[in-house]
From TrEMBL, chain A:
Main location: membrane
Database matches in InterPro entries: BP-dependent_transpt_permease (IPR050366), MetI-like (IPR000515), MetI-like_sf (IPR035906), OppC_N (IPR025966)
Segments passing through the bilayer: 34-55, 105-129, 141-159, 216-245, 265-288
One Pfam short name: BPD_transp_1
Protein name: Peptide ABC transporter permease
Membrane topology: Multi-pass membrane protein
UniProtKB/TrEMBL annotation, chain B:
CC annotations in GO: plasma membrane
Membrane topology of the entry: Peripheral membrane protein
InterPro entries for this protein: AAA+_ATPase, ABC_Ni/Peptide_Import, ABC_transporter-like_ATP-bd, ABC_transporter-like_CS, Oligopep_ABC_C, P-loop_NTPase
PANTHER family, alphabetized: ATPASE AAA-TYPE CORE DOMAIN-CONTAINING PROTEIN, OLIGOPEPTIDE TRANSPORT ATP-BINDING PROTEIN APPD
Record localization: Cell membrane
Species, as recorded: Alicyclobacillus cellulosilyticus
Signal sequence segment: none
Alphabetized GO MF terms: ATP binding; ATP hydrolysis activity
Location, primary (coarse class): membrane
Family classification: Belongs to the ABC transporter superfamily.
Protein name (Swiss-Prot/TrEMBL): ABC transporter ATP-binding protein
SMART domains from the UniProt entry: AAA (SM00382)
């Protein structure tokens, strides 16, 4: 144990570096879907961030030639790659800008759920007893409440806007997170390193956030990725119903909603945002599912 | 010599189905400065519970009473914040299972630094350098690299060394080692015990060594306390107890291990099992298994009796006859 090879340090460092590279290659081969998912998510983020540079036109500009002489949307052509909508705006530009709303709502709503759910789950799992019962019953209530009904009520009270939509979605999405975190905490808190941390004089808050939290984060990350996809869909659903993001701000949801009215003569107006939604949600779900497989080697249903 | 720790009448009750049962009962012992005291007994006799009670680390559902005197204070009566300052600083602890005693998601250096930050206010470079120095002191080769490793990159013996480094980080007066070598193989055991003995000597740290291995006690300790079913049945200097054990349980314990010296004889086990918490015998707790049990043993719990200065035994065989009634 106390003998060291003369070049022991060198070989070890080299081995470590090679190990990481090999592990990456191996994981790509083993979990191709994670990489497809990450790729979709990455593209989505790039599109949203660089929307002003990527979009050919201003998404709210109405073009004189954006409508046919009898006032119908223009089908896809070389000027309007995805056609125009019923007031003569470029569909592609709206789609590109719409990705911002989708991502914003998806990520911020998830973030809100994450903060509430993780905090309550940590407290519930760690302290147990009455506190645990109260928090878990509260979670049951939130989980049992019809999502759409509560969101409609919340948005109606708060006024529909991007911010209010993600708040409304976020404050309801924490139920599952709280449960998952609580379960993980119950498992982690019995490990000796938690006891050891207390034995060196750490306070409860320190133990919760510096020791337990990092150790329960794996499943939470998985859940967050899946939840972003779900929240994007939730925003779209609300916008289709007209209580989500309001026009003229383009969102994939309200684009589908507008397309619905003119579907019979301008189907591209629904296909474009619909397909975008499908791909975006697919991306986050693949990512989440894949991460779950990576974090939990026991599940064999990956790829 | 001055006493570092003085435990008087310690009692721990566990709640089982709305009732409290004493898991540890009427514990008296002390540890002198620089001394290593062994606490031996079989699994479930309350050794670990005793150590956790001293550190006030027992969870809800337990009731602790009695006195644990350290530095002129009763540790069981001081506020939580004050107890936190004592843990890791004055009294620190190492655990049985080195594989699970380190946080898997933090680097070794960070975990050592934690203690240095909490009690010395060290951060960043200073903490890191101190951590490397501690790793060197506990005999870890390539300390400058290991400081950036994660626990899973180290072997069990190395991890136990890291645990010792964390425990010794603030130069504590007392180190409680709860079966520190049980999970390790024999060669590593010897190294870890050597390390503990060296650190104890160099820093004047007292050790409360909890173990079920009498060999470890013989090698490490000056005095030993033998526990059975939540009580200390006999305590005294190691040589004295190994040569002239007085309590039938201690005698049984010593007869059940092989000896290197003397003639080879059959090992004699102690018949029967440890009584469960829920049905403790009314009198002496060892009576049902004791070859010398008398009527008084089954009726009344004996008090500790001094057979020689510094050597106590809790047994009716040694009680003055008049008191036996």
């Amino acid at each position: 144990m106390s003998t060291v090879l003369p070049n022991g340090s060198l070989t070890q460092a080299a081995e470590r570096k090679r190990g990481i590279g090999r592990a990456l290659v191996k994981s790509i081969r083993e979990y191709p879907m994670v990489y497809l998912g990450s790729f979709i998510v990455f593209v989505l983020i790039v599109v949203a961030v660089f929307a002003p540079w990527l979009a050919p036109y201003d998404p709210t500009k109405q073009f004189a030639n954006g409508l046919t002489p009898d006032g119908m949307p223009v089908a896809p052509n070389h000027q309007f790659l995805l056609g125009t909508d019923d007031v003569g705006r470029d569909e592609l530009s709206r789609l590109i800008y719409g990705s911002r709303v989708s991502l914003e709502v998806g990520i911020f709503a998830t973030f809100i759920s994450l903060v509430i759910g993780t905090t309550l789950g940590l407290i519930s799992g760690y302290f147990g007893g009455v506190i645990d019962s109260v928090i878990m019953r509260l979670t049951d209530v939130v989980l049992a409440f019809p999502f759409l009904l509560l969101t409609m009520a919340l948005v109606a009270v708060l006024q529909p806007s991007v911010t209010n939509v993600f708040i409304a979605i976020g404050v309801q999405g924490w139920g599952t997170m709280a449960r998952v975190v609580r379960g993980q905490v119950l498992a982690v808190k019995s490990f000796e390193y938690v006891q050891a941390e207390r034995a060196i004089g750490a306070s409860t808050a320190r133990i919760l956030f510096r020791v337990i939290l990092p150790n329960v984060l794996g499943p939470v990350i998985v859940l967050a990725a899946l939840s972003v996809g779900f929240n994007i869909l939730a925003e779209a659903g609300l916008s289709v119903l007209g209580i989500g993001v309001q026009p003229p701000t383009p969102s994939w949801g309200n684009m589908v909603s507008e397309g619905l009215l003119t579907y019979r003569f301008a189907p591209w107006m629904m296909w474009a945002p619909g397909t975008a939604l499908l791909i975006a949600v697919l991306g986050f779900n693949l990512l989440g599912d894949g991460l779950r497989d990576i974090f939990d080697p026991r599940t064999t249903t990956h790829g | 010599m001055a006493k570092v720790l003085d435990v008087r009448g310690l009692r721990v009750d566990f709640r089982i189905d709305e009732r409290y049962y004493p898991a540890v009962h009427d514990i008296h012992f002390h540890i002198d400065e620089g001394e290593t005291l062994g606490l031996v007994g079989e699994s479930g006799c309350g050794k670990s519970v005793t150590s956790l009670a001293i550190m006030r680390l027992l969870g809800p559902g337990t009731k602790v009473s009695g006195e644990v005197r350290y530095g002129g204070k009763n540790l069981l009566a001081i506020p939580d914040a004050e107890m936190r300052r004592i843990r890791g600083n004055d009294i620190s602890m190492i655990f049985q299972e080195p594989m699970t005693s380190l946080n898997p998601v933090q680097r070794i250096g960070t975990q050592i630094g934690e203690s240095l930050f909490l009690h010395r206010g060290l951060t960043g470079r200073a903490a890191r350098e101190q951590a490397i120095q501690l790793l060197q002191e506990v005999g870890i080769p390539r300390a400058e690299e290991v400081v950036d490793d994660y626990p899973h990159q180290l072997s069990g013996g190395m991890r136990q060394r890291v645990m010792i480094a964390i425990a010794m980080a603030c130069n504590p007066k007392l180190l409680i080692a709860d079966e520190p070598t049980t999970a390790l193989d024999v060669t590593i055991q010897a190294q870890i015990l050597d390390l503990m003995r060296r650190l104890s000597r160099d820093h004047g740290t007292s050790i409360l060594l909890i173990t079920h291995d009498l060999g470890v006690v013989a090698e490490m300790c000056q005095r030993v306390a033998v526990m059975y079913a939540g009580q200390i049945v006999e305590q005294g200097p190691v040589r004295e107890i190994f040569k002239h054990p007085q309590h039938p349980y201690t005698i049984g314990l010593l007869n059940s291990i092989p000896r290197m010296d003397g003639p080879r004889t059959r090992l004699t086990p102690i018949e029967g099992n440890v009584p469960s918490l829920r049905n403790m015998p009314r009198g002496c707790r060892f009576a049902p298994r004791c070859p010398h049990a008398m009527d008084v043993c089954r009726a009344q719990d004996p008090e500790p009796v001094m057979v020689e200065p510094g050597h106590d035994v809790r047994c009716w065989l040694h009680a003055p006859v008049k008191e036996a009634r």
